[in-house]
Amino acid sequence: MLASEYTNVLVAVIMVTSFLYEFSNRFRLYLKFLLYYSMVMMCSVMAIPLIIWRPRDVRNTLLGAAELKATTSLPYGLLQGRAGQLLWPHPHADTSWPLIASFMLIATFPLRSLNLLLGLEWEVHGQEHITVDRAAIVVANHQSSLDFLGMVYMWPMFYKITAIAKKELFYAMPFGLTAWLCGTRFIDRRNPDRAKASMNAALAYVKEEKVKLWVFPEGTRSMSDEMLPFKKGAFHLAVEGQLPILPIVYSSYRGFLSHPLKIFNPGHVIVTCLPPISTKGMTKEDMPKLMEDVRAQMMEVYRKTSTQVHHPRPLAEEVKKQR
Q: Model pTM?
């Protein structure tokens, strides 16, 4: 009798949830972000025991991303890119990695279906520009916390990459600890001296280990028509280290995501990897023009690709319905 009552309650909850998901934009947005953050935290907890013995190693990002690229089927994720090669002999991996990667498939199981559950489709252009094994500074536009899914989707293509993040993210446990174990460089923006020392240490590590460093030069999220003015940090590192800049451009999310309107529909995102921009021979005096040129190139691609995406349920149509 009791089991039957629980079954009835479960059926009722599922029916109500399905109804609200279909007809309430607000409920759909909150539910999707709840699923997103919950799955990221869950996978962080499951990944920590597998990577804690190799702390601060950027290769840990490959293990965490090994199956995030697979949205609907296991074979696709296993056979695509360098992440899939972790299950077989890898030129950059030791013999223990295939076993660890196998366990990571289990640890990251919730993430394997995350893009499918959120209704997100990622399309990467210019992959050949980021697969070269070299030190570089990656700069990307920043629109939402969803950018993280795009980053992890591309991590296997980069092979060795780390990121700059604000110090506050480290305390978002357990995600912060996992990010630290994967080599993320946390910057204390409230303390200029510490921030500068952290940036210099990151530059030395990038050059020595031939790692790519991902930076959001806008400094904060923005979903406006124009990218925010770029901050100097990433470009200072590139010029100081004489490292190439690799611009990454996410197409606009505005066709499927709106926080003010509480709408999060299925969406298609085009991520464009532009050719590297050399900084050889440049000095600090060249930085303003360099920043302007890079931003102009990225804005051109941003406008172009934002018109090429195809959303199953365009946000503009949702807005018309609400009126």
A: 0.84
